[in-house]
Design brief:
Blueprint (H helix, E strand, L loop, with lengths): L8 H12 L21 H13 L5 E3 L17 H5 L3 E4 L4 H9 L4 E3 L3 H6 L2 H11 L6 E2 L3 E4 L2 E10 H7 L12 E7 L3 H14 L7 E8 L10 H9 L6 E3 L12 E3 L2 E5 L4 E4 L7
Helix pairs in contact: 7-8, 8-9
Length: 283
């Protein structure tokens, strides 16, 4: 499905071909439509997504690409069929908006590469995605950077910082109490990251968060003031009183590690490691 922006058709076709070697893939004939900066009208994208949610024969819903547009669909989605027939959602970036409603429905999802990215990615990335879809997630992410020491445990939730901050004040903002919060982004200067984190803090979204895992903040170069993204992350998150680990290979990077949202994760600040509980079985 393409709930957000248009995509490169050839990359999408290559990704579909690779995934079709293992899975029965299908898509709506209208998948390749464009409407300005969107992959078709809201009506087209909504109908496509709702049909996939409603179909009891669909095991997983994979996004073609992120970009922008998923938030425009949220208030019209009917999620009762998702609870009756749970299915994986695979994607990241703008798909964070859909991960949020999956979390509110109590259904797990995968924060990971999308179909067009598979079409331009490496074989290793494809194999890691297949493992994730089939429940064989990485057991741990070692070699992280500890910004705030401590230990935390809770379901992994979150995703793209800009999308999460856009959900503040809407009924679709996920409840982050007790969660290990994943954050990543691309193309946001440090002052804009500061603004989004400040909005989340002031909204109360961080109240009760168990810990924070920071993925990649790509193309976030400092301005003439010299303030780096790490400076901002430590300033805005360091005083929350929870462990914060940075440097996870998650987000807008070439080797984007697929991780299971909704699965219990533990942060080991002193060891600079995040571990998944029951990751081998996809629990």
């Amino acid at each position: 499905m393409a709930p957000s922006s248009p995509f490169q058709a050839e990359e999408l076709k290559r990704g579909l071909a690779l995934l079709s070697e293992r899975y029965q893939m299908s898509h709506a004939p209208s998948l390749f439509e464009r409407h300005g900066f969107l992959a078709g009208t809201d009506g087209r994208r909504l109908a496509e997504l709702q049909a996939a949610i409603d179909d009891p024969n669909v095991d997983a819903i994979m996004a073609a690409r992120g970009g922008y547009g998923a938030t425009r669909l949220l208030d019209a989605l009917e999620l009762a069929p998702l609870q009756q027939h749970p299915k994986l959602l695979v994607g990241f970036s703008d798909i964070t908006a859909l991960h949020a409603v999956w979390a509110r429905a109590g259904v797990g999802s995968i924060h990971g590469p999308m179909v067009a990215a598979v079409g331009r990615g490496t074989e290793q990335q494809l194999l890691r995605l297949i493992d994730a879809i089939e429940g064989r997630f990485v057991r741990e992410l070692p070699g992280l950077r500890t910004l705030v020491r401590g230990h935390a445990r809770g379901p992994l939730l979150g995703g793209n910082l800009a999308v999460l901050s856009a959900l503040v004040g809407t009924p679709f903002m996920p409840d982050l109490r007790g969660a290990v919060l994943l954050l990543e982004d691309i193309g946001e200067r440090p002052y804009r990251i500061d603004r989004m984190l400040t909005s989340l803090r002031q909204s109360g979204a961080f109240d009760g968060v168990a810990g924070i895992l920071l993925g990649a903040f790509t193309n976030a170069e400092p301005g003439s003031d010299g303030v780096t993204v790490d400076d901002v992350l430590l300033d805005r998150l360091g005083s929350l009183g929870v462990p914060v680990l940075a440097g996870a290979p998650i987000g807008h990077v070439d080797e984007n590690e697929p991780v299971p949202l909704g699965t219990i994760a533990s942060l080991d600040g002193p060891g600079a490691v995040m571990r998944f509980e029951g990751a081998e079985t996809g629990a």
